[in-house]
Amino acid sequence: MAIVAQTTKFSKIAWPVLAWMVGLLFFFPIFWMVLTSFKTDADAVKPEYLFWFKPTLDNYLNMTENYDYWRFARNSVITSVFATVFTLFVGIPAAYAMAFNPSRATKDVLMWMLSTKMLPAAAVLYPMTFLTKSLGLFDTHFLIIMVLSLINLPIVVWMLFTYFKEIPKDIIEAGKMDGVDTLGEIKEILVPLAWGGIASTALLCFIFCWNEAYWTVRLTTTEAATLSKLIEGNRAPEGLFFGRLSAVSTAAVGPIVVLGWFCQKQLVQGLTFGAVK
Q: Which PROSITE patterns does the record match to this protein (predicted)?
C-alpha cells in the first residue's frame, strides 16, 4: 500500500514564498549594482537618491571611451576560453585513468590534488611574481592561461572523475575487445556518454576563470589585463567611484549571467548526471 504525503494549504503557500524570498535575497546585490550603474558618482552616495534619481549612461560611455572596455573584455574571453580548453585537455585523460584504471594510490592522488586548493594564494605571490618577471612571462596571456588552468585543474578532475565513475566499465571493456585504443575510448565512447558532465564542468571552469581576480590583478598590468583589472582600476586615494565601479561590474558579470541562462540545461544535466538509475 503506497503512502502519499498530504500537502497542507499552509505548505503550498509557505514554501513558494520562502523560495521567492531567498531568490530575491540573492538577486538584490545584482539589482542594486545595476541600479547604481545608472547614477552619477555623486548621486550614488546620497541617501536621498537611493531609488529616485535621474538615470544617466555617462558611466557606460566613460567605460567604453576612456577605459577601453573592449580590450579588457577581449582578454577575459581569450584567457577564460583557452584556460578552459587546456584544463579539459588535461583533466579528461587524468580523470579517465583514475576512474577506469585505478590503483591503490588513486584516492591519495585525488586528495593531494584537492589539498592544493587549500594553499593561500598570498603565500606564493612573491615567488610567482619574481619567477614570471625573470622568465619574461609577466603580463602575458600565456601566463594567465597557465595559472587559471592549474588553479581549476583539481576541481575539474574531481568533477570528471565523479561523472566517469557512473559509466559502467563493461562499456569501456567492450570497446577494448573491439580493438579500440585508449584515445578512441575517450573520443568515441567516454565523451559522448559523459557529455552532460563534461559540458557542466566546462561551464563551471569557464565561470571560475572569468571571475578569477587575485592572480589576474597581480600578474598583469596592461597587455593581458582582464575585466578584474579594470574593476580594480576604479579605485583611487579619494575613494571608490561607485557609479563607474557599478557600471564596470555590471558589464563584467553580464556575459556570465547570459551564458549561464542559455546553458542552464547543460548545467542541470551535468550536475544531476548519474542521480537517476
A: ABC_TM1
Residue 45 and residue 232 in contact, taking contact as beta carbons nearer than 8 Å: no
What residue has cell string 595559472?
147
Residues 159-194: pLDDT tens digits?
899 888 888 888 887 877 877 788 888 888 888 888
Q: Positive or negative CA dihedral for 19, 22, 27, 31?
A: positive
Q: How far apart are CA 267 and CA 269, in angstroms?
A: 5
Domains in the chain and their CATH numbers? 69-271 (1.10.3720.10)
What the block records as the C-alpha cell of 179 is 580493438
Q: Report pTM.
A: 0.84
Q: What is the pLDDT of residues 58-73, one digit of tens each?
A: 888 888 887 888 899 9
- The 3-state secondary structure of 233-273 reads CCEECCEECHHHHHHHHHHHHHHHHHHHHHCHHHHHHHHCC
> Hey, is 171 helix, strand or coil?
helix
Closest Cα partner for 67 from 269, 241, 256, 274?
241
Estimate to the nearest angstrom the gap between the alpha carbon of 78 and the chain centroid: 14
Cell triple for 82: 583557452
Sequence-separated (6 or more) residues with CB below 8 Å from residue 157 = 91, 94, 95, 98, 110, 113
Number of Cβ within a 10 Å radius of residue 164: 25
